[in-house]
Amino acid sequence: MTRGQSKKNKAKDDAKLSQTPEKDIVRDGRDVEYKEEFADENDLEAKERAEEADHRAKKKKKS
């Protein structure tokens, strides 16, 4: 092999994707993928109740 063709240097040329540091990730405790177009009446009611509960929890947390 010639200079610059060694296997050790090959990894240095690969572009790496940036990752979000763990400390910057905000988790809201939800683990659900939701599509509005596929929602039925029960889904919409559950979504509304969850939003109201979140609002009450945030309001109570501020107090």
From TrEMBL:
InterPro entries linked: YfhD-like
Basic and acidic residues bias locations: 11-37, 44-55
Positions of region (Disordered): 1-63
Composition skew (Basic residues), residue ranges: 1-10
Name of the molecule in the record: YfhD family protein
Organism: Pontibacillus yanchengensis Y32
